[in-house]
Amino acid sequence: MSMSSKKKFEFSKSVNIKNKRAYFEYHILDTYEAGIVLTGSEIKSIRLGKVQLQQAYCYFDKGELWIKDMHISPYEQGGHYNHEPMRPRKLLLHKRELRKLKEKLEEKGLTLIPTRLYINDRGWAKVEIALARGKKLYDKRETIKKREQEREIARKEW
Predict the structure, then answer these.
(1) Residue 6 located in a structural domain
(2) Could you tell me how many helices (H) and strands (E) the chain has, helices first?
(3) What CATH number is associated with residue 78?
(4) What letter would DSSP give residue 19?
(5) Nearest to 81 by CA among 107, 43, 54, 131
(6) Residue 71: how many CB atoms within 10 A of its CB?
(7) CB neighbours of 125 closer than 8 A, spacing ≥ 6?
(8) Are 49 and 55 a contacting pair, CB within 8 Å?
(9) Do the domain assignments include residue 7?
(10) Containing domain of residue 47, as a range?
(11) Rounded mean pLDDT of 21-39?
């Protein structure tokens, strides 16, 4: 095996996949760090950075928290042991955190969305989930204006 083909499948030491769209679409009220139940081929794909969080959301089912529509690409060397890319995955939180979240979700207009997926210092895959309220159209316009003003200031400082 040549050096160039070896580097192709080298795992990244730090994976930090952000859901930038979440900050544009929602007002973030509170964030939580949750573990995630994965298969072997899924963690290998995550370490290669092949994850999409844009459409993902969290929901409760029978007292457990699940994440749905998080796309983890199949692992290239997975063979027939590969995973289904869009399967629902269980999130791991303490019971008191789950109870607190469930109570807050019963309020009208609140939802749970993943904002970031990363590998912590111990090598565990973690998902940062946020309790959020959807933005109205005028809020989104305000966000765009603020971002453009910051860019303009940054250009002038250059």
Answers:
(1) no
(2) 5, 9
(3) 2.40.280.10
(4) -
(5) 43
(6) 14
(7) 15, 35, 36, 38, 43, 46, 117, 118, 119
(8) no
(9) no
(10) 12-157
(11) 88
